[in-house]
Please model this.
Amino acid sequence: MSDCIFCKIVDGDIPSDKVYEDDRILCFRDLDPQAPVHVLMIPKKHISSCDDISDDDAELAGYMLSMVKKIAADLDLEKGYRVVVNNGEYGQQTVPHLHLHILGGRKMTWPPG
Ligand code: AMP
Model:
């Protein structure tokens, strides 16, 4: 998607602080961190939101979840972390390209608000 900020990060047109990349996903530090460690994991393929994950994307979505533990280990989050996916208006999704927030480095609170 030509006007998608995260697609531009994938393409290298917008810089990012990358922590992991392979042929299917990219992880980079959030510009506005909400915890001592806050990274975003995105699929390189443009998928707008959770609502837009098709049956054909199921393997990719599963791969993303399966990679969370590796990213968490790389970032020394052995005490735990939180994975968040905001979806749509009420979910406070601001960037319409699917992303997992991985937050850690402090004890989280609940409910999230
Ligand atoms: P959400 O509100 O769930 O859609 O999350 C979007 C996240 O993307 C927010 O936490 C933003 O701080 C983050 N963000 C937006 N633009 C960038 C960027 N260029 N580099 C890194 N993080 C970004």
Notes: The CA atoms of residues 40 and 101 lie 5 Å apart. The two ends are 31 Å apart (CA to CA). The longest strand covers residues 37-43.
